[in-house]
Design goal:
single chain; alpha/beta; Purple Acid Phosphatase, chain A, domain 2; six-stranded mixed sheet; 5 helices; 23% helix; binds fe (ii) ion
Amino acid sequence: MDLVIGLVTDLHFGPEARFGGKLRKLTAQAPGLLRAFVERMNREVRPDVVVNLGDDLEDESREADHARYAEVMAILGELDAPVIHVAGNHDAVHLDPQDLVRFWGRPEGSALHYSVEVGGYHIVVLHTVEVKDVSVTIDDVQLAWLQAELEQSRSPVLVMMHHSAADQHLVGNRWFEGLPHICLVRQRARLRSILEASGKVLAVFNGHLHWNHLDVIRSIPYVTLQSLIENVEEDAPGRAAAAHGVVRLTPRRLLVEVEGAERARYQFARGSTGE
Ligand SMILES: [Fe+2]
Ligand SMILES: [Fe+2]
């Protein structure tokens, strides 16, 4: 079946934050960039579903984060398509899981990992947990849940998560060079083996690393999407990446188009192709 998915990540609504003294996240532009994304989706792309891969916030305080997360939900609420949300590390600093569940309109008491059936595809959302400067993990309970989800699914699966499950070579990454423990999930080898064993996973999408990166591991593509508000220049005043993705699935292929200042296209064949 054909399916079109809009992707956006690392919106970082919040105060200006410098990194090494340089302006690397264009947080002031976040609302405008998100509105432009929504407009393009509604007018041009018309996706069946949109996935928000997390870090909606540049965290500041409980009160400010609550107001800003509500602002993000209001802007994304203008989308004609339904939206699937993933929790990012910055979202979970001052907001607790039930705050996010309420914002997402999920049933009270729900977990931050869940799955949704969309147009003949099973979309699985994972919740990876970051302890600032220490680790990114996924626990055994969630891995067991994932395995059961994959076993039960009668549809091809797409996995959405905030951190990466790939073994990315991080040299050249502004934020994470030399710091795999705060961007790659510690249990990634086990996580990948669960995905591989199912034979059902078409692709895995994530944000967090603020760059475009593709890994293909044992035939599964792991796609990392650039941040919407990343400054593609070295410092202020800067130029926003305005990154977002469009995933186009047909029975024969999976096409990922990354739009914005740093464009990319990835195409993967599904099943037999050609004549
Ligand atoms: Fe981020
Ligand atoms: Fe993040």
